Amino acid sequence: MHEPETAPHIGVLAIQGDYERHAAALEESGATASLVRNTADLLRPDGQSLDGLILPGGESTTMLKFLDRGGLFEALRTFAQQKPVFGTCAGAILLAREVRHPAQPSLGILDIAVERNAYGAQRDSAILTLETNLPEWQELGPLEAVFIRAPRIAETGPAVEILAERDGFPVLIRQGNTLAATFHPELSADRRIHTLFISLIQLALNS
What we know:
This protein is an alpha/beta fold. It has five helices and twelve strands. The longest helix has 15 residues, at about 190-205. It is globular.
């Protein structure tokens, strides 16, 4: 294991979605960000593995077609089994153990069942404020959450910690070093979630 850097080096899967916004949010939150488009991009310039990875939003079926090329799907599965990963919207779908409506392949990293497009079409997108279950966030007020064709987390396993909910369903969860949100934190000015992900990476590096 390499010695941790002051700024962890985090990749952002750059196939679909607003990956540039995620990269900017990571940089604003104190990390070094780089874009991942192939298996080689999962390594830092020094040849060591990236410290963490974000799987952004997009259209999950389209993302799967690209991931099947060049062995990237299996490379992401291996990476996510060993390193902290954060999935947002379609990224959360990719991390799930089960995908419904319709069923599709996934990485099976998070013990959750996800229903695609559960909140309707693009016109049903919404910006909401959510209370969270993290005590250290309480004094900072509610969390802004941008939902765009959001999936719904229908089931969670016993190891999954629910950090925020919408209408009684989890929308922000954590399982070990893996984080997932059914909304788009990169579209908000609030950097709490990206900062939380960086802290999970720093804990992993120091363990």
